[in-house]
Specification:
This protein is α+β, with helices and mostly antiparallel strands. It contains one helix and ten strands. The structure holds dinuclear copper ion. Dinuclear copper ion binds next to loops.
Length: 155
C-alpha cells in the first residue's frame, strides 16, 4: 500500500505524541507519586455535625505510632486548624466536605486531594522535616474561595 509522505509524517508525529503523553503519566506516577485516588468511601454529608469521626475532627495516634487526621472542608475553612502532626511519621489525612467540592492541597508537597461532599478522600504522607505548611483550597467553591486556607505544623 502506498502511503503519502506527508501522511506518514503525521502518523509518526501522532504516534510520538501518544508515547510522550503515556510517558508523562508513567513519569508522574513513578517518579512523583502522583496517582489517581484508589480509596472509595462514602459518607452522608448531612450527618457530619454529629458524626463520630468528623463531628469534632480530632487528630489521633494509632497503636503503631502513625497519625490519623480527619478534616472537614466547608465554606470557607478547614477544620481542624491548625493541624499539628509529627515529622518522620506516616500521617493519614481523611478529608470530606460539608457543602460543595473543595480542594485540599498542602502547598510545597505532592499532597493534593479533592474534598467531595458524600465521599471521604484519603491519603498517607510522611513529612521528612519539621516546618509549617499552608493548606490551600484549589477548587473554586464560592465567593471567598481565595480566602480558604489552613495551616499545617509539622513538629
Ligand atoms: Cu474551598 Cu475553594
Amino acid at each position: 500500500m502506498e502511503v503519502d509522505l506527508y501522511e506518514r509524517i503525521w502518523m509518526w508525529a501522532a504516534t510520538g505524541l501518544i508515547v510522550v503523553f503515556l510517558g508523562a503519566i508513567l513519569l508522574t506516577t513513578g517518579a512523583q507519586a502522583i496517582e489517581p485516588p484508589s480509596h472509595v468511601e462514602t459518607i452522608d454529608p448531612t450527618t457530619i455535625p454529629t458524626h463520630p469521626e468528623f463531628g469534632t475532627p480530632t487528630i489521633t495516634q494509632r497503636p503503631d505510632g502513625s497519625v490519623v487526621v480527619p478534616v472537614v472542608a466547608a465554606m470557607f475553612a478547614f477544620t481542624p486548624s491548625p493541624i499539628e502532626v509529627p515529622a518522620h511519621t506516616p500521617v493519614t489525612f481523611r478529608i470530606t466536605s460539608m457543602d460543595v467540592i473543595h480542594g485540599f492541597e498542602i502547598a510545597g508537597t505532592n499532597a493534593n486531594a479533592m474534598a467531595i461532599p458524600g465521599y471521604v478522600s484519603q491519603f498517607t504522607i510522611t513529612f521528612p522535616t519539621a516546618g509549617e505548611y499552608q493548606i490551600v483550597c484549589n477548587e473554586y467553591c464560592g465567593l471567598l474561595h481565595h480566602m480558604m486556607s489552613g495551616k499545617l505544623i509539622v513538629k
